[in-house]
Amino acid sequence: MRAKAIVVLFLVALTGSVFASNKAISKDPGVTVRTLVKGSPIHGSNGIFIGPDGNLYVASVGGHEIVKIDPDSGRILDRIGPERGVDSPDDLTFGPDGSLYWTSIFTGNVGRLFPDGSFDNSIANLGPGVNPITFSPDNEWVFVARDFLDKGLFKIRPDGSEPTPLLPDLVNFNGFDFGPDGWLYGPLYATKLIKVNALKTPPLDPATDVVDAITGIAPSAAKFDSKGRLVTNDLITGRILRKDLATGEIEVLATVPFSMDNLAIDSRDQVYVSSDKDGYIAKILPMGNYVLISPGGMISPSGVAVLPRPDGGESVYVGDTWSIREFDGRTGEARSVAETNLVAPTLTVYPMGLTADGSDNLLVASAFGYVVQEYDAVNHVVLQTHADPLFPGVPFMPANAVRFNGNIVATDAVTGLVVQRFPGGWFPIFATGGGSMGLATNGADLWVSNYSQGIVYSIGSGTPVATGLSGPEGLAYYPPDGSLLVVETNAGRLTKINPATGAKTILAEGLEFGFHFLPDGYISSDAFIDGVAVGPSGAIYVTGNKADVLYRIEIHP
Fold first, then answer.
1. Residue 204 in contact with residue 196, Cβ under 8 Å?
2. Mind listing the pLDDT tens digit for each residue in 224-273?
3. For labelling, which of 105, 239, 251, 375 has a CA lying 20 to 30 Å from the CA of 97?
4. How far is residue 555's CA from residue 557's CA, in Å, rounded to a whole number?
5. What's the CATH architecture for 48-294?
6. DSSP per position, 372-401
7. CATH architecture for the domain at 21-39+298-555
8. Which neighbouring-strand residues pair with 239?
9. Global pTM value
10. Residue 34 and residue 51: Cα distance in Å, rounded?
């Protein structure tokens, strides 16, 4: 019964239906607004560490913050963000003086927050990809590695001085910790667990100073408890493992059904696990059980699309950075989660724009994945991937895509071009001058929103149909009255536009928009749109990525 209760807790957190929001309202009595789904309170949880105060500190790359959590109650005590120097933190640790150190994976900075509240957001810059971080046993050095965006293992002094390459070619060395034997243990991400003779005076020899510690698993982190036992994980099976280095015995502490990123262990040898793709924080209990101390779910909802179901209901699909999530349009119940991947023909990462393409399929646009994909959402199969560059040597960074007159039309988030897919590649059909985001069509006409200009254009006539909008992103056609629905991100509202007259009506306000998963200025940072879609029932669905929510809005006759 205990294990079943924990599984139920997981499922409740996945649906998000236990949460409520009363910020979103409509002043029109004929319009109702409700939060259909509430996702994770953390925009993805990455590195975790028990601080000197006994609280759990969680690095959130996408949230651009470090979240301080009571490990017993799960209550969020503090959010340490850009105002204290933090941006895209992937891992963290504490120094002997109580200073908080973190790595910013996109900027390459190693930051430091001093006990008195002052900070230095870049005591050192080792280049994009900085990720795992830990102190040497004597606290004389800080060890940092670069993952995913670059490679290499380095050490610096606690003040950021004397940056020293140790293994420049070491690839994807993640979530590491020093063992009782003085070697640095950590995973080559999702491949195997290794140990490195990191305290040896450089240069290190990859042939003798890098040794396999555990093979046959796909780990993402390694940490040691007070008894010198190694705790690691296996991404494929969801197992949390503990190895006694003296005997070689490996035991399974628990198996979790969500994605894992990193581990932390407190002074009582209590193990905690973070979830990058879902935002969960779990505490591992005896007898193979676990409890969620912070719920998960959506971490950065962006594009949204609706498909009808044979049972008469409608499924709402939400692009959520590492997945496409399916919810019941009336209850908000989670129906499926399709995980994304960087490599085609699988579903690409960062599905920013979603559009219904028939009764079963979606068009998926990803500026960071550089593709538009045709995706069978019912059977979870990628039908076709369009990864051609915009021009020779110019990557295509689509924010949205629709089917128009049998062809795929998409927006490019960087150039502002609207392009159409032909057998030879992408060809421009309209130019807005940068900031093109949402697309909408009724089959005869085609419209595009321009975020930076505050304009919705008719592509057919080449003229604006509405101006003076505040950061328009998601765009949808509303069949009941032939209007356009536009998400005004900077104003937190959903607005209805008469495309013939340009007249605007505010349908809902107080919507929580405007979050960017990538840091400002980092390639397509503004391409994570807040989306809007209309279901066959006439219900309107809007993503609020700042609060990790999905809204349902209804206009009553």
1. yes
2. 999 999 999 999 999 999 999 999 999 999 999 999 999 999 999 999 99
3. 105
4. 7
5. 7 Propeller (2.130)
6. EEEEETTTTEEEEEE---SBTTB---EEEE
7. 6 Propeller (2.120)
8. 234, 255
9. 0.92
10. 38
